[in-house]
Amino acid sequence: MIVWHYVRVTLHLLAGLMTCAFLFPVCSQISREKLVQRWSRQLLGICTVDVRFIDQSEGQHAERALIVSNHISWLDIFVINTLHPCHFVAKADIRSWPLVGWLCERAGTIFLARGKQREVRRIYEGLVHQIEAGKRIAFFPEGTTAAQGTVLPFHANLFEAAIEAKVPVQPFALRYVDQQGRFHHAADFIGDMSFAESMKIILKAPRMTAELIRLPAITTCGAHRRDIATQSQQAVRDALGIQATQAA
């Protein structure tokens, strides 16, 4: 069974490569988003990951906003894409992943090298232009993945893009659970774990459900980026019912 899952994942990745190479150049933005949404749903289906959308925004969500979420796994991008196909800001390491890195790049992922302030500034300016152009941008402000049961401090730098583009921040809380509603730790992608190792664990694990929780949008008018980052982290932490790791 596990071999068949690997075959299906490989074939699906190859189908994604073909789509990016031959359909994306001739598709409209709306058509590309629909293709990304469908492809993401199919990938999660192959990985036996169901998606449950939970709306806790109380009508205070924003379609034109900077999307942020806690970060657990490489699966997160595709879970969010099933609801809102986005251009993600992701760590530069992903670009080197076989097949997946190229797919993410073609889908509009913006890669950010760690610890390079000049790179952060360049990315930030690009985000402002893309948001103003109507593109849906998302990033994971923890800067890395964290095991479920933990929310790391949110880095504030890229929140400035929402302030300058005059759009709110739309936070989401994300968790992976088993049939009893407990954290499904097969989704955790932490430490030195490779993409291949993570994929193997997920494919061998019992079925899981990704719960994507939309929270009330946070206004950025007259706000400071650090305050918005703190408010976003607090909202995610409260939605998940877990304690955040204190900043050093």
From TrEMBL:
Q: What domain of life is recorded for the organism?
A: Bacteria
Which GO BP annotation is one of this protein's? phosphatidic acid biosynthetic process
Q: Which GO MF terms are attached to this record?
A: 1-acylglycerol-3-phosphate O-acyltransferase activity
User: Matching InterPro entries, A to Z?
Assistant: Plipid/glycerol_acylTrfase
Organism of derivation: Undibacterium luofuense
Key words of the record: Acyltransferase, Lipid biosynthesis, Lipid metabolism, Transferase
Phospholipid/glycerol acyltransferase domain sequence ranges: 65-177
Cited CDD domains: LPLAT_AGPAT-like
This protein's pathway:
Lipid metabolism
Q: Name one Pfam family in it.
A: Acyltransferase
Protein name (record) = 1-acyl-sn-glycerol-3-phosphate acyltransferase
